[in-house]
Amino acid sequence: MKDKSMKQFSGVYFAKKYGTALFSLLIFIAFSFLANNFFSVSNILIMLRQISMLTIVALGFTFVMGAGGFDMSLGNTAGLVNILFGIVVVGTHNLPLAILVGLLIGLAVGAVNGTLVAVLGLPDFIATFAVGSIAYGIKMLITKGNPLTMPASAVPAFTFFIGQGRIAGIPFPVILMAVTIAIVTFVLSKTQLGRRIYAIGGNKLASQYAGINVKKYRFITFLLSGLFVAFASIILTSRLGSAQPLAGEDFMLDTIAAAFLSTTMFGEGEPTALGTFIGAFIIGMLTNGLTMLSVEYYFQYITKGLVVILSVLTSVYLGGKLKKR
Amino acid sequence: MSESERTVDMAHIIQTKGLGKEFNGVWVLNDIELTLRPGEIHAIVGENGAGKSTFIKILSGVYGQSAGQICIGDEETCFTCVSDSEEAGIRTVHQEINLNPYFAVYQNIFMGSELYRRVFGIKVMKDRAMRKRARQVMERIGIDIDIDTNAAILNTSNMKIVEICKVLVHEPKVVIFDEPTTSLGEEERKKILKVITGLRDKGLSIIYVSHNLEEIQAIADRVTVLRDGCKVGTLTREEIDVDRIITMMIGEKTYEGFARHQSTATDEEMLRMTGVSTHKLKDINLAVKKGEILGIAGVVGAGKTEVAKAVYGLDKLTSGKIEVNGESYKPTPGRSVAKGVALVPEERQAEGIIPDYSVSKNITLTYMDKWSRLGVLKKKEEDLDARQYIDKLSIKTQGPSQLLKFLSGGNQQKVVLSRWLVGDFQLGLFDDPTRGIDVKAREDIYMLMNDLAAQGKSLIVFSSYLPELIGTCDRVIVLKEGRQVGEFKKGMDRYEEHILAAMLGGAS
Fold it and tell me: Which of B368, B374, B401, B429 to mutate to test the interface with A (most CBs of A within 10 A)?
């Protein structure tokens, strides 16, 4: 009897484990046939560069989500970091200082989120949403909504290389993304930090009873989320060549999409770094492919919304099926 | 036992004949013969697992019976659902209070049975009629609660009274009270008991389930004692006596399968709690020696788990001091682990396991440092050590990488135990360690506890299952309503009776 149930189970298991990866392969093949130039090295590199920032943001979010939390502030935090990075780099011509300031802003927002959610116990959706609103207000107060131009003459030479340069033909952001994926994969799967984060996501109470300092580790996840948003924002500013207060707003929905797609992958039920990358890649393919097919821009939002619903549905439905056993 | 033949002929409102219930081939209730007469309070007592709740669930239609009959008056009936039982005039006042805090008292009383009329097909509440009825019910039981106040601001006893009113608006013939006075203070308790006796005097028949034998002695007209799913006997008003009830509840028990025959307690002290109070505990003073197994007994809600939580640092101390190994400290779970304190929690699913983690990850969760260098885990060594404990405790699993959710309850519990065994703890707080697990696993755990004590570790076992404490512990401390009410050493005269009497509030 047990064998039989195991066999029935394995079909579901296979779907859960590889379903999303197959789905992404299908989209890839479909676009390759439908759109000219989609399947080319140069376009794939463009696509990878497009998603590199999203992937980094989503990797930060993966920590938060791994511990069972949620961060609604990251879209607005991105813009705030953009502005402040731009102001400092234009004002001081000191790129390392500007990068440091940018990263510290991200950490500061993360610390506020972590204090509210992990330490004071506020609901994560509401607290981080409110923090995002504050970040939005601050960046608008500073800029009055206007972008800050960064003429090449006014900033150190390397500033634009971060987002626009190439090494051996590979866009620099793609290299940064690859390194980040490798680091996050290592941290999540091989270290105590990752083990504890997933344990908290798996059962918060049991983790606390096992002696894990749940508040501390949840706090850390928000710090990391803020840090990764800041990192991605700096790349984005460099890529755009100007500091835009509204830049990075799309990160929010795209990140949720990528991270939820991630939970549907590899049958773990918890988001992984590689899964998050594939999730971001699916989003990137949709944007890129639909643009190539001259589908109207706004239709892309509808598609993304549908993808989020589909991935969450898959995750909940298959997850529920596995849990019932 | 002492119920003579004549009682069968007397008027009855409910009569059960040979009532039984089985779950998955296990008979949890056998051959229950019970009569409920008009205008009596019939108490039902028994230890945990004796079958009390199964019995009342059959009467209230939650479960169908597997054997026997229920007669209402002279008519034989069978309840397939709760509304069948309600139609027969049987209503239950549940142990839990379940009011909507934002609704007025009268709205709560009519929750789910609102009076309304239809205006163009829309249901419009008849508030005036409901308020009038609610006031009548209050008057009938001689209680004056403002029916327009929100339920949120009522005290616990008044909430209970609203729960009783919820039942009374349906004009039942029989009311089942399930532990109506738990978590109430002395004055509040008296108030509720007065309401219940008042209902009896007005002719209602009452089935009264309680752990509190003093209460039963005060108000019950008859008492039926259950043990291991069987009826031991029924005592009449004149025969009710706390000691006698306790003797009936215990019966003849054997303690085979419990490995502890001799204490291994030393003179060195492991834990001392001095005047410890938390929101649920009042002035706990106790000490455990190295090598000793201490039992903490008490009925559900007596504060057993809260003692474990206080020591482990999950509940904040409002006063008092905790010393481990002679050193005073302010416990948090992290610090407790560092001090060698281990907690096997009561709610295995909610507090013990990470269901989506493998056996091996669950085992290494607490003492993760042992398998890591500079924060990086050594998975192979984790699996190797996990395998060792899988063998040692005969955990039934496909291997260290199987997800814990696929293991049975007993094996999950062994994994939780292994989590501590790998780290060489000094003081184990075992909260209901054999809850819901099979006999074999249970015996394994008793053996293990005995071995641990022999190694010089101290254990505290928290349980409301008396045979377990009697069989495994050197000494038992009894809690009642958050206070220590007695301490009993193994080997004393009438050990078990004394413990049970202290638990249930009889003379001790």
Answer: B368
